[in-house]
Specification:
By secondary structure, the protein is of the alpha/beta class. The chain contains eight helices and six strands. Bound molecules: farnesyl diphosphate.
């Protein structure tokens, strides 16, 4: 598929994806739900590779929400096993392509056999600067904001910050995403039109793209289509069109 996303100025710096529809993909084929997750990993690989080739520096994937802990036990344990397998298999490529793995969420809640591999992968890729692949694991946006509020309250109680002087930056610096740019583009697959507790603070001015494609069917073509649509959006950040995009031609 030929889509012109070669103009780097039109590319998002940070793409965040709500990967949805694995279960429906499997059900449509009479397969167990976990097969949908297995195929979902293939889509993860395709999108990571495409983002890297294009030079998108930040890609964030909603892999496991706090709410997902409530799923049937065998689905949760399969997802954990798949995550571990993914990390083990991807490590050589992460190293070869100088991709830094990053995690947001309460990763300490993951079972120790996943945490071990995760911690090792985080440590071995920590110095990489070409691209940051962030996995949201045991993540929920409200929980992230709550934890940031607690840190801020502690700092205030210790006199490190004056309540009247707390700025948006003080909050952002205590979120799991501290130091990362906000997502320019959020993609959600499978036709659901919800945010589902994903990056609530960070998506204040993100562009949203919803597609009916189920996550296991989301590949390079769909990713390029999403980027193409993004490149045609006019971001205004609350300003008027003229302010956001002054007419070109003059000095
Ligand atoms: C949503 O589909 C998907 C998830 C809850 C998990 C996403 C996980 C993967 C793609 C695999 C593991 C990821 C990595 C990065 C190793 P759903 O189960 O909610 O689908 P449904 O809405 O059709 O039931």
């Amino acid at each position: 598929m030929e889509i012109d996303v070669t103009d780097a100025a039109e590319l998002p710096r940070h793409v965040a994806i709500i990967m949805d529809g694995n279960g429906r993909w499997a059900r449509q084929r009479g397969l167990p739900r976990v097969e949908g997750h297995r195929m979902g990993i293939r889509a993860v690989r395709a999108v990571v590779e495409c983002a890297r080739e294009l030079g998108i520096p930040f890609l964030t994937l909603y892999a496991f929400s706090v709410e997902n802990w409530g799923r049937p036990e065998n689905e949760v344990s399969t997802l954990m096993a798949l995550l571990r397998e993914f990390l083990l298999k991807e490590l050589p490529d992460l190293v070869r392509h100088r991709i830094r793995l990053n995690v947001i969420g309460e990763a300490e809640k993951l079972p120790s056999y996943v945490r071990e591999v995760l911690d090792r992968t985080l440590a071995l890729t920590a110095g990489h600067t070409d691209m940051t692949l962030t996995l949201a694991l045991s993540y929920a946006g409200r929980n992230e904001i709550l934890r940031a509020a607690r840190k801020l309250a502690e700092d205030a109680a210790r006199g490190r910050v004056a309540p009247g002087e707390i700025t948006e930056n003080e909050i952002a610096a205590r979120l799991d995403t501290a130091g990362m740019p906000d997502p320019d583009l959020v993609i959600r697959t499978s036709g659901e039109l919800r945010v589902s507790n994903f990056l609530l603070w960070q998506t204040a001015y993100s562009e949203f793209l919803f597609t009916d494609v189920l996550w296991p069917d989301f590949g390079k073509t769909e990713f390029l289509q999403a980027l193409d649509e993004y490149s045609r959006r006019h971001r205004r950040f609350g300003l008027t069109e003229e302010q956001a995009e002054p007419p070109s031609g003059g000095l």
